[in-house]
Design goal:
Layout: H1 4-11, H2 16-33, H3 48-65
Length: 66
């Protein structure tokens, strides 16, 4: 019989998709830090929480494509 923990570990193994997601988040947060990040309306993003939301959204979009 297979234990739940071993099944969970097999499912949660990190792969290329996770690395790509981290890379995308790092890129977007770097843009925010350099004051280059813009929202969909074209205005500069000034709030950190908004930058995180954009980063996660873009990472999800990238995950769906690959």
């Amino acid at each position: 019989m297979i234990s739940r923990s071993s099944v969970r570990q097999q499912i949660m193994k990190p792969g290329d998709k996770k690395k790509k997601k981290k890379k995308k988040i790092k890129k977007v947060m770097g843009e925010f830090k350099r004051k280059k990040l813009k929202s969909s309306s074209g205005k500069k993003v000034t709030k950190r929480k908004q930058a995180i939301a954009i980063a996660l959204s873009e990472a999800r979009r990238k995950k769906r494509r690959s």
